[in-house]
Structure formats: C-alpha cells, structure tokens
C-alpha cells in the first residue's frame, strides 16, 4: 500500500512537472504514512526471509556483524572519517558517486570479513565487551576459550 501511494504521488508529480510546494509537503509530511507502510513491509519480508538467509554463509556473516554492531559502527565511522575528513586524509569531494559506492562496499566487506573470525575467538565485539564491563563495574570474560 505504501508503494502504491508513493508511485501514485510520483506519477501525479511527474505529470505536473514536479511542483515544488507539493514536493516539499509530500516529502516532509504527506508521504509519512506511505513510507511507514513500506518500512513495515520491508521488515515483514526480512523476517520471512530470515530463516533461509541465516542458513547461508552470507547470513552467518550478517548475523556476526549484527552481534558486533557497536564495534562495527564505531570502527567504520573512524575508518571513513580518517579517509575523508580533514583530520585524516581529507579526501571528501575527491570521488564521484560510483567511487563512493565502492567505499561503502569496501566498508561492508570489511565488517563481514572480520566479524565472524573475531566471534570465533571472543564472546563479543571489543566495544560490546567494554560497554558491558563498564555497566557491570568489572571486567567480564572476553575470550571464548582460555589460552592453553
């Protein structure tokens, strides 16, 4: 239903040469429920696909990356700001859209590549461990198996 409402508005807008006032209203307010319906639909599809996805190699990598979401979020933020912001290499604005998509894919690949091997040796990501240790006021065990 959300997709139909959005497509309907897009068709009307195209026929009327994308009226600025209507576009601002629709994007800011008018299509809010349509976008919510679409988000809920995507979520429902993801939930239906999850059992099949989690049984695949990619699904297991995604699951591991999700279990380390805090570490991955902060890690990719640090890597990308180090590449693009002035305190790092200052490469902001030096690449086109396709190259920027390549950096996104590289970030995703790194998250998927390191999360599963990390979790094979440790109970959780480094920042998840730090956060939980701070909330418990003690250093919680991190390694899966003691070093022999």
Give a verbal description of the structure.
Helices cover 75% and strands 0% of the residues. It has two domains: 1-55, no CATH class; 56-148, no CATH class. The model has no long low-confidence stretch (mean pLDDT 89). The relative contact order is 0.09. The radius of gyration is 21 Å and the shape is extended. The chain has helices spanning 2-15, 20-30, 32-54, 57-67, 69-84, 97-121, 126-136. It is an all-alpha fold and 148 residues long.
Give, in order, the helices and strands.
HHHHHHH
Beta percentage is under 5%
Q: Characterize the quaternary organization of these chains.
A: single chain
Q: What is the mean predicted local confidence, pLDDT?
A: 89
What Rg is obtained from the alpha carbons, in whole angstroms?
Answer: 21 Å
- Describe the main β-sheet briefly: none
Give the N-to-C terminal Cα separation.
58 Å
Task: Name the descriptors.
148 residues; mainly alpha; extended; 75% helix; 2 domains; single chain
Topology (elements, then pairings):
Blueprint: H1 2-15, H2 20-30, H3 32-54, H4 57-67, H5 69-84, H6 97-121, H7 126-136
Summary?
The chain is mainly α.
């Amino acid at each position: 239903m959300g997709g139909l409402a959005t497509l309907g508005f897009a068709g009307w807008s195209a026929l009327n040469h994308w009226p600025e006032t209507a576009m601002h209203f629709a994007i800011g307010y008018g299509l809010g429920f349509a976008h919510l319906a679409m988000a809920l639909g995507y979520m429902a599809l993801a939930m239906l696909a999850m059992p099949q996805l989690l049984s695949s190699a990619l699904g297991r990598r995604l699951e591991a990356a999700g279990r380390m979401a805090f570490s991955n979020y902060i890690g990719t933020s640090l890597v990308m700001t180090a590449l693009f912001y002035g305190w790092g290499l200052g490469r902001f604005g030096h690449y086109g859209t396709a190259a920027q998509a390549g950096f996104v894919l590289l970030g995703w690949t790194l998250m998927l590549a390191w999360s599963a091997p990390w979790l094979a040796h440790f109970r959780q990501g480094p920042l998840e461990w730090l956060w939980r240790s701070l909330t418990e006021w003690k250093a919680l065990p991190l390694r899966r198996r003691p070093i022999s």
